[in-house]
Amino acid sequence: MGPVYDSPLILIFGLAAALQKEIDYGAGVFGREDFEATAEALAGLQGTFILSLNAVQGVYETFSRFAIEEVDCTYSISEGNGKGVKEVIIS
Questions:
Q1: How far is residue 56's CA from residue 37's CA, in Å, rounded to a whole number?
Q2: pTM assigned to the model
Q3: What pLDDT digit, counting tens, does each position of 40-64 carry?
């Protein structure tokens, strides 16, 4: 991230592609290496951030240097039955 978008007063919120579900976004659009690059970029921020991701082991490993809180969520694309899942909030 360039200096225009980063300062101690900035809060960045990110909802990234789901780890281990990268193909859902299209072949080659977002890969495992992008999660590593995201972690590196976040570690260098002057400001603060909140990132939401699916709760899988690779997320805990990749973002272990940050605070991680696991939360229960429900995925749904219409009214009716949703699917209970775990997400993590990383900061």
A1: 18
A2: 0.77
A3: 999 998 889 999 988 989 899 999 9
